[in-house]
Write a structure and sequence with these properties.
With 529 residues, the chain is an alpha+beta fold. Helices cover 56% and strands 9% of the residues. Among the domains are: 141 residues, no CATH class; 178 residues, no CATH class. The chain contains 21 helices and 12 strands.
């Protein structure tokens, strides 16, 4: 018999228990906790004369010890190549970050999802911070579990593996079996992590203003705004009752959209507390195990295709999506479906921002430049008094597309600097929800290179746009007040973003990657010379 909760959520067919949304102990309190967490952010990042001095000294000491040997070797030309230099400093930074704990490990995890945005050596090294962080000792784990459940481990679990299955920034997970016989995984928060995160946010908010304009990445990111963005994200991870609620909400969204290729493990209806979360145990292929999936007859290209439309639909139609996709947070079942894991970060769009996001996607599909810039403004990426025509003119969006592969290194660097300067002049920033969505798209971009390198990017995105119009045309008409019968798919904006002219009809991901590698090489050669 299939489980009764499949009538409203996307779960496994025969779970260890069936969820009843009306009787879940933690479902209503999670809404209050989420609001309180966001209300605390301004206090955590407010300007202060003196930060927590002990923590500040610790942070500066660890990062300084990581960077000083690298500065010394670099100054004396001890590295044979730039890649060797970046690999060396990336390794030292990872070791320092692991010692600094949860907050900095979470930052490393975010960077590890930025393939193409950050140096390859840094991304590869920081990927180890996803689930290869040193685990907490068993005695500490046992104490946390028993404190939050109010019972001895033996009174709840028939078995509980002392060795962690995986360990990351905020928590680690262990295999266990309940006294009632169900196989589960238990997510256990690291001791005192909540207090440490809050101290770290205070330190970061104190340091951030001093970084403005001092390094290129900081100048682009706007350090104080980045700290605020990071705070808004991480505070919701400090109470696992919010995560359990996120699991239910995403599962409902997937079910309502008929996204049958994705499922969510069931959280336990009563064994969820601030620092403990018990959930259904699922098994499958690691998302990077392409050979294993293909040997099992799984269509890896189909896995990617369903992911591309699933996350777009979740954001545009329901205003909710998994906000932290990476290889450690999802795996593929034997039947080809994908299980989503770790719901500490979930993107939630207000209705106003959801409609703005919908207008952004519609503008991209119809090559409406003014519509796209206006939507970015309404999403909070630009000030509300922004002159939209001036933005289009200053960024050159209304000019013929320049193929970046036709530019030399100096021209490429100059063009990037021109765009960044124009964006900063307009006060551009990256709102939390847009940042999470872009980060997910960056992850999917990298996943395509492994699971479906010969996928026609232009053709697939055109197909997704048409499918979305067919499924949700009536909703578009109602919510945006547009006549969908007059909408014509025009992938000009997409092609311009890829750096190709409008006559290009197809481009595989492999071809796109070759273009990117050429561009990156020219820019690196120019910077080095």
């Amino acid at each position: 018999m299939t489980s009764a909760d499949l009538e409203w959520g996307n779960f496994s067919e025969q779970g260890p228990w069936a969820l009843d949304r009306d009787t879940i102990a933690w479902s209503r309190i999670a809404i209050v906790l989420r609001a309180e967490a966001q209300k605390e952010v301004p206090t955590l990042i407010r300007s202060r004369r003196i930060p927590p001095l002990g923590r500040l000294v610790t942070v500066v000491t660890h990062l300084g010890w990581a960077l000083l040997p690298w500065f010394y070797k670099k100054k004396r030309n001890k590295f044979s190549t730039p890649e060797e230099s970046r690999a060396y400093v990336s390794l030292r930074l990872r070791h320092a970050i692991e010692k600094l704990g949860a907050t900095y490990i979470k930052l490393a995890q975010i960077i590890s999802s930025g393939e193409g945005l950050f140096p390859t050596e840094l991304v590869d090294e920081f990927k180890r911070c996803r689930d290869q962080v040193p685990a907490e000792p068993w005695d500490s784990v046992r104490t946390t579990v028993e404190q939050d459940l109010g019972a001895r481990i033996e009174d709840v679990f028939a078995s509980f593996e002392k060795t962690a299955l995986a360990a990351a920034s905020i928590a680690q997970v262990h295999r266990a079996t309940l006294l009632t016989g169900e196989d589960v995984v238990v997510k256990v928060q690291r001791p005192n992590v909540s207090e440490m995160v809050k101290k770290d946010l205070q330190v970061m908010s104190w340091i951030a203003p001093f970084m403005i304009g001092r390094i290129k990445v900081a100048a682009l990111a706007n350090p104080p705004a980045l700290v605020e963005l990071f705070a808004e994200t991480i505070v919701e991870e400090l109470d696992f009752r919010m995560e359990a609620s996120n699991m239910i909400d995403v599962s409902v969204m997937l079910h309502d959209l008929n996204q049958e290729a994705y499922i969510v493990p069931r959280p336990h209806p009563s064994l969820a507390a601030r620092r403990i979360l018990v959930m259904e145990r699922l098994q499958g292929f690691n998302f990077d195990d392409v050979d294993g999936m293909q040997a099992a007859g799984i269509d890896t290209e189909a896995v990617i295709k369903t992911g591309m439309i699933s996350f777009m639909e979740g954001a545009l139609i329901h205003g909710i999506f998994h906000g932290d996709l990476h290889g450690g947070n999802l795996f593929v079942l034997q039947d080809g479906r994908t299980a989503l894991l770790d719901f500490g970060i979930v993107g939630r769009l207000s209705n106003k921002r959801r409609l703005a996001f919908m207008r952004l996607m519609l503008g991209a599909t119809t090559n409406d430049l003014k519509g796209q810039v206006a939507a970015l403004r309404d999403l909070g990426a630009l000030p509300m008094d922004t002159d939209i025509d001036a933005v289009i003119r200053d960024l050159g969006l209304d000019q013929p597309t320049i193929d970046p592969t036709s530019l030399n290194g100096e021209e490429l660097v100059a063009e990037v600097q021109r765009i960044v300067k124009a964006l900063l002049a307009y006060g551009a920033k990256l709102p939390k929800e847009l940042m999470l969505y872009v980060k997910n798209m960056v992850f999917l971009d990298g996943a395509i290179s492994r699971l479906a390198p010969d996928l026609d990017i232009i053709g697939e995105l055109t197909h997704i746009s048409m499918t979305f119009m067919q499924r949700h045309g009536a909703r578009l008409a109602q919510e945006l007040g547009v006549d969908t019968s007059t909408i014509e798919i025009d992938m000009g904006s997409l092609k311009a973003g890829l750096g190709v002219d409008e006559n290009t009809e197809s481009m595989t991901y492999r071809q796109l990657q070759q273009r990117r590698e050429l561009i990156q090489k020219r820019m690196k050669d120019h910077i080095v010379n």
